[in-house]
Amino acid sequence: MSNVPGELKYTRSHEWVREEGDTVTVGITDHAQEELGDVVFVELPQVGDSFGAGESFGVVESVKAVSDLYAPVGGEVVEVNEALNERPELVNEDPYGEGWMIKLKAEGSGDLLSAADYEKHLAEEAE
Amino acid sequence: MLREAFEEPEESYGLLQALLDEVGRGERGETALIFPCSRHVGVTRMDTRRPGFGRAVRAAEALGFPVLERRSGGGPIAANPSTLTFALFYPVEDLRRGIYDRYAEGTELVAAALGRAGVEAEPGEVEGEFCPGAYSVRAGGPRGVKLAGLSQRVTRRAARLEGIILVSGTKELAEVLERFYAQLGAPFRRGSVGDAGGAGVPDVMLALEREVRSRYGAVGSRLDRKTLEEARSHVGEYRVATGGRI
After folding, report:
1. Is A66 within 8 Å of B156 when comparing Cβ atoms?
2. Quaternary form (chain A) (predicted)?
């Protein structure tokens, strides 16, 4: 069973969002990292880049596949987790902590799910 | 099914991207694509960051193999016109699901097609293989030879399972892979590079086509001008410059 922290919000494409004022921290969920397998490379944008909600902001490469990452809300990138350059495995080891990916200065709220709704989404997808 | 290799390998990569985009936009349903490769080495984005990559690129180029960055997982691969590209494109509802099912489907399909061409093959990893992983097709068990390798590219609305199938002319592939992996300091066993025995490229293409038709009821179709134009618009995205990390 995947870990779904109650204080975070989620997308249907399995990113998580931690809201702190007008800044949001973004990563991929425990479920996403489990499905991807060992993450070997994460390509992230640069500080100052802007994305619309739902737009691809990067790419995660695992031993299984290369797949896109999607911005849960629109906004400007204000910080990038540089540690993932050297230690992409943090995404597997600590997806909600040291494995965070970007911080955005949010513009708008996006179509986000509560933890309960995300768990329901996972259950529906599993059926 | 395209019977001739592209003049430049970038064109084939562009086509793989264009079809993925079309499936993702809902303009095209499930699609299979089969064609002979152009001579090249394909690497992942991660490979381009590895120490020794610049030397590896120069070693490949010295043997006549340009190096392209492919947008799927795994490790360095080498191909020539006696190698086939096989790809399946799927619309997806959830990009974080289905990876394993698609691999199982793809490896079984390729193994079955090789069987139709008279080559005994099974899904499974090979010791010391290029682009190592569980999603290979092999002959001779774990210490045998690799016949095909598969990888995936997944976006929100579409996924592409793609692979290369080693049919013949593999001596030069083993040579370039040996040099490339040596420069990266990565393990590689030259004897792990297999081929389809006496079967030729047309035989394996036909076997793949029959397998796809029998599994999916697929019908042939032409690539229209719009798809080809979109494919051409991507060709500048893949070639790796020689000045990588030394």
Report:
1. no
2. The glycine cleavage system is composed of four proteins: P, T, L and H.
Residue ranges per domain, chain B?
9-234
Which domains does chain A carry?
Answer: 9-109 (2.40.50.100)
From 3.30.930.10, 3.10.150.10, 3.90.25.10, 2.40.70.10, which CATH number describes the B9-234 domain? Answer: 3.30.930.10
Rounded-to-5 percentages of helix, strand, coil across chain B? 35, 20, 40
Q: Which of A61, A67, A125 minimises the CB distance to B46? A: A61
CB B127 within 8 A of CB B189: yes
Flag if B94 and A125 touch (Cβ within 8 Å).
yes
**Residues on chain B touching A41 (C-beta within 8 angstroms):** 44-46, 49
Name which of A14, A43, A68 is nearest B155 (Cβ-Cβ). A68
What is the per-residue pLDDT across B148-164, written as a single tens digit (0 to 9) for each?
Answer: 999 999 998 999 999 99
Helix (H, G, I), strand (E, B) or coil at A104: strand
Average pLDDT, chain B: 94
Is residue A2 pLDDT above 90, yes or no?
A: no
Chain pair A-B, CB pairs under 8 angstroms: 72
DSSP assignment of B33-81:
EEEEPPSEEEE-TTGGGSTTHHHHHHHHHHTT--EEE-SSSSS-EEE-T
Q: Which of A109-113, B29-33, B78-82 has the lowest mean pLDDT?
A: A109-113
Q: Do A35 and B99 touch (CB under 8 A)?
A: yes
State ipTM.
0.77
